[in-house]
Specification:
This protein has 177 residues and is mostly beta strands. It contains 1 helix and 18 strands. The longest helix is centred in the first third of the chain and has 10 residues, at 2-11.
Length: 177
Amino acid sequence: MKVTKIILALLFLPLGAFADAPIEPIETVKVSSEDDFEHRSTFDGCWSLQKNTDYILTQDVKLTRCLHIGATIRLDLNGYRLSRNLDNLFVTEKALIFRVDRTLIIEDSNESENNRGIIAGDFNINTGIPAILVNDNGSAFLRSGIINVTEENLAIDLHGSLRIDGGSVYSYGTGIT
């Protein structure tokens, strides 16, 4: 009798009673300067991004430090350029733009021919540091942006995974390792 009551009780539970808790929406942040990336701390000389966030560039942005990706980050270049500022003499890894430990998704919502979004490792010293470093458990996805390294050096040093679905990687050096 008790088993029958339990079975009947389970049948009349709402369908969502056993569903996973709803996933919190990812925050969207418009970026017009490095400060808008909402870095809260540093990691290995980079600004550390530890919260799942969509970032949308609203103008060209120069970074004084690399961005450490410790969460799921979606970067919409929106037709603008993301590069490193070479004026900061205290940063030894001037070429490094991203250090990816989790997931970085790069796309460009503004796909007009005259206004293509670019991630530029336009550094003027050959440090042997790649523009993007994907660590063992990290993943990078390039959807429609352009990664351009203008000096002879690595564009991407890959220890995790990289998927290119429509973007381009240009490098004068060895490109992707």
